[in-house]
């Protein structure tokens, strides 16, 4: 996020005469931001962006949609309206990529060659990895997920019903790395506060099951979240991941995870629910996982995320490939705030590579997770690779929630995203 969150970046970089065919895979936050910056910096840009989506969603707004704070129509734009003039858009998905040949192919079979590749296709969510669940059946049995646009809309309707009917409300996360790891906790705390505001909190038993060993890995934010859960009597169970869901019977089965590992130990427990929020496991897209881009030299096998230098964002093996956003195997959280800091670094290093210079720009791992702890307050978790707080507003206690964070989340970040960030201006 940084101080430039409050306005347009004042850094003016010189035009580059470097030439080369740049292909950007992905038209999400990362792809658009990088495309806009490159388009301005290169004197003779030759940029192609590949993405099949015709609608662009402001994904950080899904939580606020599920909280009743944003309308459904306010968090999306036509993709065509966000692509910079002069950037060619191929409205298809990528079927395969051959980095050894500097070539990829689209779903229609068209071959696209490149000199430099920016890999920013986001990630894939695997709902079917949870037995009994599929993306197109979200809402059935009162099972919801705010990582999906329609899922977030239905979740808001369900939270309103929950405040009236009461019952057991179970919230979960997942066992893989995921985009915005704070989202499951946000909707949990929002739903609990909504019931308190309606005077019906005593009718709902709130429970949170985490596949990891704690609510959040970074202090002092973890301590504050634990305190909030304790004070609000939200039950917390760790090291349990969702195995299956019976939507008809409204039962969820968890596998107990072996602490400190990704493996499930075989022991299961089943719980009845009246409301259930799930998070699917996530990974890099299939075409990435099936390519040599996913090969990790450190382990000798393909990884779930693309290995890249954590400072320069250059691919581990292919030095004309740059990686950003959710697909990147970086030791930091996958958020839009991280992308906003990655984009200028990637562009500087890509232009340096095109000009034959040393790549000097470095990303420090900055990311931010604005935990909406209740309506009107946000715990702004900002940190870098060191896992130490890196607050935008240092005069405020980073370990406490504040109204300033709510104003930022509710009123500033969405217009900043559409008018500045994806246009490469913030």
- Number of E strands: 24
Report the C-alpha radius of gyration, rounded.
Answer: 21 Å
Shape, principal axes of CA atoms? globular
The chain-level structural class is: alpha/beta
Give the amount of beta strand, in percent.
Answer: 15-25%
Beginning-to-end CA distance, first to last residue: 9 Å
Query: Helical stretch count?
Result: 8
Low-pLDDT segments, ≥5 res? 1-11
Mean pLDDT: 94
| Helical content (DSSP H or I, runs of 4+) | 10-25%
Could you describe the largest sheet, including whether it forms a barrel?
5 strands, parallel
Describe this structure as you would to a colleague.
This protein is an alpha/beta fold and 426 residues long. The protein is 24% helix and 24% strand. It is built from 8 helices and 24 strands. The protein has helices spanning 29-41, 62-66, 149-165, 183-197, 221-231, 286-289, 336-355, 403-419; strands spanning 22-25, 47-50, 55-57, 76-78, 88-90, 94-98, 103-106, 111-113, 116-119, 124-125, 143-144, 167-172, 204-209, 235-237, 240-246, 251-257, 264-272, 275-277, 282-283, 295-296, 301-302, 321-323, 367-374, 377-383. It has a 5-stranded parallel sheet with strand order 5-2-1-9-22, with helices on one face. Strands 11-18-12-13-14 form a 5-stranded parallel sheet, with helices on one face. The chain has a 3-stranded antiparallel sheet with strand order 6-7-8, with no helix packed on it. The protein is globular, with a radius of gyration of 21 Å. The model is unreliable at 1-11 (pLDDT under 50).
